[in-house]
Amino acid sequence: MSDLSKDTEAKLEEIAAERVEELPGETALGHRDPAAGGEGEPQDWKGNEDVKLPE
Question: Which portions of the chain have biased composition (kind: Basic and acidic residues) (predicted)?
Fold first, then answer.
């Protein structure tokens, strides 16, 4: 069970949904898969360094 408030949990779910849309799709070999959507190249993905999480 989580210790997060419902509001914080809802904000995190919203952030996660947005981030999933941005993730570059990749093949099993790690190459970009244009059919999978997303932005950029998988090897260039920087992760969550610019995402501000709720406190």
Answer: 1-22, 43-55
